[in-house]
């Protein structure tokens, strides 16, 4: 399952994989979830924004609603009632860019059996202008991604878009190992990466289109490293369910 180099021959395309032109700024964001009337906030992991038709949505991992920080996870059926607001800030500057609404109501089940359940989708208004930081005067804006039309094939190159403490850049190469309607597993090229804190980050294809949401990391006894993600089909289904329930 290990990949020996950062560039490799894609079993899907038969060509050397080249990293897409995807910027971290304005795309991958830090989420802060505000809980109910007491306005208590839970922060952790990552999130990102996508445009789907005329609508805009913020996506993050359901697990960030509790377990990683030692807080009891909110039951899925209560998420739309207990989470009052989502706020998103830039990873580098900390500038607040998005104030979203309550999460979309869906038929989401409690996290556990499959990665496709580990997803929360929030509706986000499209801002009319850029946001200006009160402390630096810098101007920034959300840079939404686009969902891919088709899921990646087994053996296809994909990239995790996430900032890492090691200073290894923000595009981390992998190759699809397994894919179905419930999960996407992919082998990670650089086995030395520390991917802690990347839950909720986007996975993109060679065109820079979103094909998954990062939810977990698996380190094997032989030194191999793999990631698990919510697949494209589950993302689209969750958005469709939520839009229909609004």
Structure description:
The protein has two helices and 16 strands. A hairpin with a 4-residue loop joins strand 12 and strand 13. By secondary structure, the chain is mostly beta strands.
Which secondary structure elements does this structure contain, and how are they paired or packed?
Blueprint: E1 28-35, E2 40-43, E3 47-52, E4 55-60, H1 79-82, E5 83-90, E6 96-100, E7 120-123, E8 131-132, E9 139-140, E10 145-146, E11 157-161, E12 171-179, E13 184-188, E14 202-204, E15 210-219, E16 225-231, H2 232-245
Parallel strand pairs: 3-10
Antiparallel strand pairs: 1-2, 1-3, 1-5, 3-4, 4-7, 5-6, 8-9, 11-12, 11-14, 12-13, 13-16, 14-15, 15-16
Pick out its properties.
disordered N terminus, 246 residues, 16 strands, six-stranded antiparallel barrel, Thrombin, subunit H, 7% helix, 2 domains, eight-stranded mixed beta sheet, mainly beta, 2 helices
Structure in a nutshell:
The protein is mainly β. It is built from 2 helices and 16 strands.
What is the name of the CATH class of the largest domain? Answer: Mainly Beta
β-sheet strand percentage = 25-35%
Which residues sit in consecutive blocks of at least 5 with pLDDT less than 50?
1-14, 108-113, 132-138
Q: In the residues, how many domains can be counted? A: 2
Mean pLDDT: 79
Instruction: Count helical runs.
Output: 2
3D shape: globular
Run of helices and strands: EEEEHEEEEEEEEEEEEH
Fold-level CATH name of the largest domain: Thrombin, subunit H
Task: State the separation between the terminal residues, measured CA to CA.
Answer: 42 Å
CATH homologous superfamily designation of the largest domain: Trypsin-like serine proteases
Quick one: biggest sheet? 8 strands, mixed
Class derived from helix and strand content: mainly beta
What integer value in Å does the Rg equal?
Answer: 17 Å
